[in-house]
Amino acid sequence: MSEPQPAPDPRGAAPGPRRMKPAQLLFEPPEATADPEHFFDLESIEDPRELLGRATELTLAFRAAADRATEFQALAAAQLADPSRFDRMPLATLAAQAEWTEDYAQKMIEFGRSLMRSSSALPGESD
Fold first, then answer.
1. Which residue has the higher pLDDT, 39 or 36?
2. Is this structure's pTM higher than 0.85?
3. With the C-alpha atoms ordered 77, 78, 83, 85, is the resulting torsion angle positive or negative?
């Protein structure tokens, strides 16, 4: 299995060095999520060094997942707003569906178009 790659910075800045491999995000069993104090079993770790390490792994994993999900949102927005589609979604409708402002929706469409221009593959397929 290949290592996750950092998402490209939409501002064009190079990503910083990664010191740790992000933890794999796994779904918690339903009975564990019913307890509001339960979070990826962190509450059971007593050693503060181990807790810091595991919490840091989860933080990196959530950031990587959020970056990747944002890329997919941008790709979908660009595809839905494509003028060549017969069922093109109007900007206001797209913004409302994604719970964005229209300005942000336009930026996401532009970001998605730049992702499509820079690579014909979806994010992560070239790993």
1. 39
2. no
3. negative
